[in-house]
Structures are given as C-alpha cells and as structure tokens.
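Re: the pair you flagged

First of the two:
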Amino acid sequence: MESIFHEKQEGSLCAQHCLNNLLQGEYFSPVELSSIAHQLDEEERIRMAEGGVTSEDYRTFLQQPSGNMDDSGFFSIQVISNALKVWGLELILFNSPEYQRLGIDPINERSFICNYKEHWFTVRKLGKQWFNLNSLLTGPELISDTYLALFLAQLQQEGYSIFVVKGDLPDCEADQLLQMIRVQQMQRPKLIGEELPQLKEQRVFQTDLEQILEGSEGSGMMDEDEEGLQRALTLSRQEMDLEDEEADLRRAIQLSMQGSSRNVRQDTPQPSSTNVASEELRKRREAYFEKQKQQQQQQVDPSGQVSYPCERPTTSSERLGSDLAGDSMSEEDMLQAAVTMSLETVQNNLKTERKQ
C-alpha cells in the first residue's frame, strides 16, 4: 500500500487532507483553500448587500465570523465543493431522496466524502478495492466490497453526512497499479491517538522484557558460579577423603607392625621401624654381624677345639643386607625387612641367653 497517497492529520486541516487523499496528491494547500473561502465570503457579502448596506441584516452579517473557514483550519462543505469543481467533480448527498431513487449500489461508485461535525475524510476505490483514507488513521484501511454498504450505513447511524463524488477523478499511480493486483491487509491501521500510547506501551514492555532477560542472564551467571564452586568443594572433599584414607592406612600398617613386635617380647624395646632410614639399617646390620662374629670366636668346644656353628639357610637379615647393598628395594620392602630383622635379632638374643 506504499503507492497509495495518504495524508495524516495536522491540526484541523482535515478538509485539505480529505481533498488530497481523494485526488491522490498534494493538490490543495491551506492557502489555496483559504482563498476559495474568502471568495465565497465575498460572494455572500455581495448578496447581502443587495438588501441594502444600511440594513440590520447586512450589519449583522459583517459582524459575524466567516462561515467558510476559521483560524483552526476548518473549511466548509462549500469550500470543498468549489475546490472539486476545478476538476469537474460534483458532490451529491448520499442519503438524499433524489439519489436514493436512483438505486445505485455503492460498490459501483468511485468515491465518497464523509463529514461529522468538523471532520472530513475520504473513502475511495483504487483499482478494484475500496480504502478508507481517513487522515486520523495511521494508514489506508482496506474495505471489502461486502463490508462497504454496511460501513456507510454505520456512519449514517453515527450522524455522518455522506456525499457521493461524481465525475472522473484524475489518474494516479495507485489506481493503475491496483487495477493489476489485489492487496491484502494483515493488520488494520489504528487511530493516530491510539498509536502513541501503544508505542509507549510497547517500549515499556520491551524495557521490562530486557530487564527480565538481564536478570535471567545474571541469575544464570550466579548459577554457573555456584555450580563451579560446588564442583570445587566436591573435589576438595574427595582429596581430603583420599588423604584421610592414606593416613588411616599408614596408621594401620604401623599398628600392625607394633602389634607383631609386642607378641615376641613386650618388655624388649623395639626400634621405630617407620623412621628407620636405609643407611641406619645398613649400620645396624654391620654391627649385628660383627657381634655375631665375636661370639663365634669366643665359643670353644670342651675338648679345646673351636666349635663352628652348623650351616644354616640365609636369613632374612642377610637378604636385607644384600638387598640394601644394592639399594634396589622399595621403601615398603625395606620397612618390612627391617621389621623382620628386628624380630630375628630378638629371637637370637633369647637363644643366646638360654645357652649362657
């Protein structure tokens, strides 16, 4: 509908908008219509003067304001009618008995001018479709053929005066284009007074929607932060649980080793196997074997011969010494070997004390 010329309301220049929307162009200005109104006023003054310039009616006429225009921009039906005569157009009252006797279907007409109080607007056929070109609307309003008669009847009930425009209207681009195509209107235009509150309401709604979306995004960020914090806390708890399990395991091993030592001899002081380093174990091993060697040298058979102990399998202590010499054992193996060596040392000492 962009090709349809449609002037929107400015001040009280509805008569100008009505004429230009009818003719589909900027044919009339307020100055031109004012000139027509002044010409009509002069013609009326001349007719009143025929009764005498000194008559009371003439003096009263001069004191009254113009009936064809006012300072707000209103123009009378006489101004509109005279403006259309320039284009060879004539206005006929739609609900007059003379026109009704003709029995013409409104669909077969070309255009109508409607007036209520001081407002004028045009209803015109462009191509094969009817349009309401009211300047108080935000744009042209499509009227179906079946609705046209009902629309005009409704206007009459509301007090409108309807005039049929007779004659050939000037050619226009919209009429030529709409002769070839038909248009559809998905949304009807609104009154200009209703558009502004609606736009304001839309802006307020959009602002509220943006605030809600921003709040949702902020809440989403808060949720993401909280989720990340929750994951960090979970991992921290898992690490703490793992450390606790490892500590419990070390304590269990230590208690188990201490319990084994107490079962051999509770009053025998035991070395702290958990704190024995590999170097200390090596030194203890060397001291132990040196002591064993000295004892063997001191033992003499009653016949005066030195007695040699019988051959025996390699002990865990000796295995520990050979392993430690190579430093190939793990820390747990060394720890277990140290415990075993301590137990063997205690057993050997007990045997020696019994022999003595």
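Second of the two:
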Amino acid sequence: MALTAHLMAADVQQLLHNKFVVILGDSVQRAVYKDLVLLLQKDLLLTPTQLKAKGEESFERDKLVDGGQRGPMHNGTQYREVRQFCSDHHLVRFYFLTRVYSSYLEAILQELQSSQHGPPDVIIMNSCLWDLSRYGPDSWKSYLQNLESLFERLGQVLPESCLLVWNTAMPVGKKITAGFLPTEHQPEDSSLRDRVIAANFHSSVEAKKHGFDVLDLHFHFRHAGRHLQRDGVHWDELAHRHLSQLLLAHVADAWGVDLPRPYPVGPGIRDGPARTGPGRGVERQPRASPDQPSMPPAGYRPLLPLPHLPPPPPPLLPLPPHPRPFPFHPVMTRFLFCPRDHFFASDHPFQSDQFSSNHFHSDVPSPTQTGFSFEDDPQPPRPPCPTPYLQRAPVVHRGFPRNVRHGPYVPWGWQPRSSKRGAPSHPQPRPQ
C-alpha cells in the first residue's frame, strides 16, 4: 500500500493556474473534459444526466463553440463538437474525434498553432473505438498507420514545453450497445475487447517511441467493471473522478510538483458496492452553502479500505503561508481570461476519500521537435475568448528550470523529470 495525493478543487486550480489544456477524443474523453471542468470549480461529482449529455449549449459555465446542437445531431463519423471552458486563469478546450489522424486533426493542430493563447501547456488524447469499428474491414491496418502519422506529426509541431499525455483506451464490456456503434457493427463476441487491448499496446509503443507520455487507463480500470455503464463503453461519475486524480497526478509528476493530502490506495480502482440505485452505493446530499465543505453521508465506506497508518512526523521547519504556489511579482498585472460568471448551484457533493491511485505509467522523454508547419487546411472555428494573458505568472515545464517557492505544493528534492526531446534548433519562445 502506497501514498498518493487526492486533489480538491483548490488544488487543481493552483496546479493548472494560467495553463491551457486541450483534450482530444471520443465521448469517453468528453467526460474526462467535463469532470476536469467541474473539478476546477467545485468538489462535486458529475451527475448521470451530465455524463449522458451530448452537444449541449453549456455545461458548468463552459460554451459549445462548434458542432453539437448547433448542427445536426447524429452518430456518424463526421460528427463534430468543440467545447471550451474559460475562466480568469484557466483555459480548457475539447475537440471530439472519430479518427486518430485525419485532415480534421490537421486543422485542429493548425488552430492550436495560430491560437492567440499560445500553444497548449497540456494535450490529453485518445482515439480508438471509432477507429476500430467504423472504418470498414481495413480499420485495423488504417489505425496502425494513422498512429504512426499522428505521433510523427505531433513530434514535429508541438513545442518542448507542451506535455502530451496519451490515454490508453479504457476497458469495454462483453456486450456493447453504445449509440456510436450501429447494430450491424456490434460484435457478437469479445473481438472488440481483444482489439482494444492490442490497439493499446501498439499506441503505447508508438507514443513512447516518439517520446510522449502514456497513462495506462486500461490497466487502472481493469478491475472496475461495476463502474462501467450498461452500454459497455462509458463509465460512471466515480470512475471519472478517479481518472481525473490519476491524470492530474501524472501532470504534477511531469512538472515536478509535489501534491498535498496523501491517502493510501491500491494499484487501481476496485469494484465498489453493487449498484443499488441511481447513487450506485454513494448517497448524495446538498451542500449547506458554497463555503461549507461536504461531509460523508452516514454509513459511507470508501471504495478502497484505508489501513491504519502511524501519525505523520511533525515538520522540521514551519513554512510561511502563501496564497499561491506561483505568486505574482509586484511588476506583473493580473490579466483575465474571460468575465466572471456566477457558479451554478451544486448538484451533489463529492466524498473526498472515495478513491485515488498511486500507479501511473509514462516516463519516456521526448524527441527533437521543430516549430509549427502546416499546409493550407480548413480550420475549426476559433473559440470566442479574449487573450487570456499577455504576461504569464511563473510556470513550470518539464525539462525547464523551476522557480521554487514556498506554498501548498512542497517542492520535490529534485528537478522535474528531464526531457530527452532535444530542444529545436530554433526554440519557440513562450508568449510574454
């Protein structure tokens, strides 16, 4: 049994302070986006309705930028959906993909290259199920070729400061009835499950070959069948919060940021209580006020047992309190991403000790990259958001010197994971 951090909304806000995060993928990755957007604002879980919603105009103060309900709603390979959450110091964007590499992906990369916000700090990506099931008898061969093209292209266009995390596809059920898979494409056996495992192996090898990080979600959720929805593809709110903790711990490790509030956990999320109703074994209760922390309901038990631990040793030297891990200098001006809005009312509280994990993969640094270069491709519409910052607060990127300061994130005793992705011959400066 090991220790890892369990992040609350305030921790996530500071970890991703002045960061531009992009998430690319299918409906499972859309739920990854939604849980991150929610966790940036509230210590709450997604509701089943929020998880099932597709293409809605707004979700928790985000905006639908393109596609979705603005166009025809369908389950075809040409479906598009672009979403964006923009606050004072956070920018998170989602692009729906039905294929891992295509002319549409090239257009997305061109959009990111020309973004007024500068290149992303983090890109989280996966595409697998659509690739394997919706593109004809040669889909497997095409998927392998597209993986090679994708990571080669990303290696060419992404700057050294951008952290790319490839999520492996999560496990699927024995019977798949998800809407994206028409009846005539639904396998009668476990062939899709086997192909997902093989696809994860090949995508992980290809990502590591080009120096990108891999987060093996299939490994983490291999024993989490009770959190899989009845359609055999999508996951419940508990699984997605656990996924967010894994992802954020991975990002913090890449940036050399130590995380607060350690909890003992096992190597992966385990089967929880049997589903007894909409709560699936976790009672929900409204919060008394936005400032009052949520309390566990009576009879609540965490998904993983918490063994008795000896009390932590007292700190050797007290650290002076500080409001931020990366404070602004007096000469810096605070720039707003977008105007503030009021928070939505909370739906249900998130129990703070339900789960977390300590096992994540990916320590492979990255190859030499050059600047952005594109042919003339059609671009996705640019999200209407003013420039988030003209001068950033001090940031921490893997392979870059750190500006170590006292704060809630106690610095490691070593530098962030070093990068083997050689700096480009003409490095691209960060926007100032």
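The radius of gyration is 21 Å.

-B.
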